[in-house]
């Protein structure tokens, strides 16, 4: 399985170039700062954060980390992945790599796995630090909550690494791959949230429903982006009561937390597959 060799080399290169340590440091700083800041904030509806059960404090810490993670993870994954193939293609090292017994699909898959391991290691180290701080500050153990949170965040990072490597495989230029990565981040973190609102305005003639209850398709469109799907996975922690009140009825299966994971899975597979198809037939 030569993709394993490609992934291993990519990961070891990240260690030697200190990329892994820089990324891990970013996540550690984020986690420590967020955990300490959170310890000084009174939680909604509590009046006194110290009166909350310890499991609730750890749960709310996870929700507190969700927003910065939803911004930092895509940026980091796209930066780590966009030069994976296009950069080596420009430098000429890709021809050397392909002169070894590696198929082009092995290169694409190995690059995705190797770059994902870099980001996933940083995420795990950073948020494990937050968990340890939670143990000290809140006397809370809740390890399964944090393991699920880390797993969902790693899935988000894998989706954006796949998008970045897909762009890198699709184009021969690292600058065009970078433009694709920047455009992807702007689309999903600035533009996509307005798409359901615009469609609702066109269909209903208003920005907000009079009842405060949105149709299921509105929430589903929000979930179609990688970051939206990541938000959807938190139903596992929150339960469906808030979403039921937003919809004014039962939650359909395609808005459940596990279906959000399916959407993330599609983002992991499809961009890299499209990039591979172009890369497979490219004249190097």
TrEMBL record:
Keywords carried by this UniProt record: Membrane, Transmembrane, Transmembrane helix
TM annotation in the entry: 20-43, 63-85, 112-138, 144-170, 177-195, 255-277
Claim: Cytoplasm is one of the keywords in the record: no
Pfam families assigned: ABC2_membrane_2
Superkingdom as given in the UniProt entry: Archaea
GO cellular component terms attached to this protein's record: plasma membrane
Protein's name in the database: ABC transporter permease subunit
Species assigned in the record: Halorientalis brevis
């Amino acid at each position: 399985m030569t993709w394993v060799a490609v992934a291993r080399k990519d990961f070891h290169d990240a260690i030697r170039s200190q990329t892994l340590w820089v990324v891990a440091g970013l996540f550690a700083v984020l986690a420590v700062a967020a955990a300490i800041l959170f310890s000084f904030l009174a939680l909604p509806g509590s009046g006194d954060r110290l009166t909350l059960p310890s499991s609730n404090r750890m749960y709310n810490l996870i929700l507190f980390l969700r927003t910065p993670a939803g911004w930092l993870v895509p940026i980091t994954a796209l930066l780590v992945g966009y030069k994976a193939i296009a950069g080596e293609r420009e430098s000429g090292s890709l021809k050397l790599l392909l002169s070894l017994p590696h198929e082009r699909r092995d290169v694409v898959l190995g690059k995705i796995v190797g770059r994902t391991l870099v980001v996933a290691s940083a995420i795990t180290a950073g948020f494990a630090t937050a968990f340890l701080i939670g143990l000290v500050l809140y006397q809370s153990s809740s390890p399964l909550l944090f393991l699920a949170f880390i797993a969902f965040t790693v899935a988000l990072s894998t989706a954006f690494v796949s998008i970045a490597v897909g762009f890198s495989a699709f184009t021969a230029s690292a600058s065009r791959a970078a433009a694709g990565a920047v455009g992807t981040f702007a689309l999903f973190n600035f533009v996509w949230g307005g798409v359901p609102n615009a469609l609702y305005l066109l269909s209903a003639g208003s920005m907000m429903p009079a009842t405060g209850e949105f149709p299921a398709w509105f929430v589903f469109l929000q979930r179609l982006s990688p970051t939206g799907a990541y938000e959807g996975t938190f139903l596992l922690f929150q339960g469906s009561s808030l979403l039921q009140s937003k919809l004014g009825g039962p939650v359909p299966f395609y808005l459940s937390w596990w279906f959000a994971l399916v959407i993330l899975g599609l983002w992991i597979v499809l961009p890299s597959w499209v990039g591979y198809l172009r890369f497979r037939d490219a004249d190097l």
